[in-house]
Structures are given as C-alpha cells and as structure tokens.
Amino acid sequence: MRKIITTTFVTLDGVMQAPGGSTEDTSDGFTYGGWQISFPSDHMMDSKLSEIMNAPFELLLGKTTYDIFAAYWPNAKQDLNVADPFNSTKKYVVSHKSFEPSWHNSRCITGDVVTQLKKLKEEDGPDLWVWGSGNLIQTLLKEHLIDQMHLWIYPITIGTGKRLLSEGTQAETFKLVESKTSTTGVVIATYEPAGELKTGSID
Predict the structure, then answer these.
(1) Half-sphere exposure of residue 200, counting CA atoms within 13 Å on the CB side?
(2) What residues pair up with 187 in beta bridges, in sequence order?
(3) Parallel/antiparallel/unpaired status of strands 174-181 and 57-62
(4) Residue 4: helix, strand or coil by DSSP?
(5) How far is CA 75 from the centre of its chain?
(6) How many CB atoms lie within 10 A of CB 168?
(7) Is 96 exposed, middle or buried (0-12, 13-18, 19+ CB in 10 A)?
(8) Among 12, 61, 72, 103, which residue has the least CB neighbours within 10 Å?
(9) For 4-193, which CATH superfamily applies?
(10) Distance CA 66, CA 60 (A)
(11) CA distance linking residue 121 with residue 125, whole number of Å
C-alpha cells in the first residue's frame, strides 16, 4: 500500500493560504499572499526539497491548489527541479464537481471521494504527495488516510486566512519523527499518526 504524505507551509498561527505569491489565493480578502518571501532558502531547506523531488511520487491535490499549480508550473522558467517532476508525474485532483483537467497527465476524482482515495492508496505505485489543499487534508485526516505530514513552520503570525487545522479537526495524537531548523528559523517537522488522544489528570 502506498502512502499519502502531505507537505504544508504554515505560519506559527497555522495559516497556510498563499505562501508563495501575492495573487496566489486572494479569496476572502486575504492580503498577505507571498509571506514566505522574507525567508530565503538555505542549504537545509534546499536539501529537504531535493529529497522530496528526487523520490518517486504522484500528486494528490485539492481543486484550488490544482488550479494554482496548473496555471504556473507548465510555464515555469525557473525552479525546474520542481517544475519538471510536477509536470511529468501523474496528478489526481479532488473536486466537488467533475471537470476536464488541462494539466498534462491529470485525472479528476469526484463523487464518492473517500472510497476512491482508499482504492488509490491500495494501488501499486509511488507515494501520493499532497501540497497545500487544506480542505482535502481535512478529509484525509477525518478518514485516517494520512501516513506522514511535513510541516514547514515559518516564524510569523498573520491572524487571518485559511488554516491547516481548522474547526472540526479530530482529536488525535502524532509522533515527531524528524525536525530540522533553517538558518532563518523555519522549522521543518515531520509527524506520523500515533493513535487516539488520551486524556487524564495530573496529580
């Protein structure tokens, strides 16, 4: 069975909306797009990104993230270490409504999404990588379909915007399997599900 692995850029207060550009996602009047710009990559961040891009993978994306990626990566002149793998690999896009994907090697998943995602996990193939796609991540968490989460945590707060873990997130325990810190204070932490949340009293 292949894994579903998420990679998410988040602020300290959990905002994941539009990290890469001012016009990336302006929904709900969001005006802080491109908040990553103050934190240039260093050797550690470049090394982690190369590790991800050099591994076999297919993309699993929500519709909003898919539209952003499909408008940018096919025509990207820079970041070819990301563009080439993204453009060539198979892409699955989860959507409330059926549509004809424009990005090469893409397939729409709609209808009984959970059943289709479970079948997709059981197929032979490389791991499925989720980038962005906050609504999809909520569905994956609810159905316990995520095997690993990479969080790139930036030392800023915004106070508004779409958050990774929103209202309705289930109570659950995760274990930290790796963490690294960039020279600019960005923490890359990798978590795996570790079962139900246990509560009690401290005597």
Answers:
(1) 3
(2) 153, 181
(3) unpaired
(4) strand
(5) 21
(6) 8
(7) exposed
(8) 12
(9) Dihydrofolate Reductase, subunit A (3.40.430.10)
(10) 9
(11) 9
CB atoms inside a 10 Å sphere around CB 110: 14
Least confident range from 72-86, 135-149, 188-202: namely 72-86
pLDDT at 141: 93
Report pLDDT for 193: 94
For the chain, domain boundaries: 4-193
pLDDT confidence band for 186 (50 / 70 / 90)? very high
Residue 193, amino acid: P
Query: pLDDT tens digits, residue range 52-66?
Result: 999 999 999 999 999
Q: What is the pLDDT of residue 98?
A: 92
- Amino acid found at 90: K
Task: Identify the residue whose tokens are 């990301």.
Answer: 82
Rounded mean pLDDT, 95-100:
92
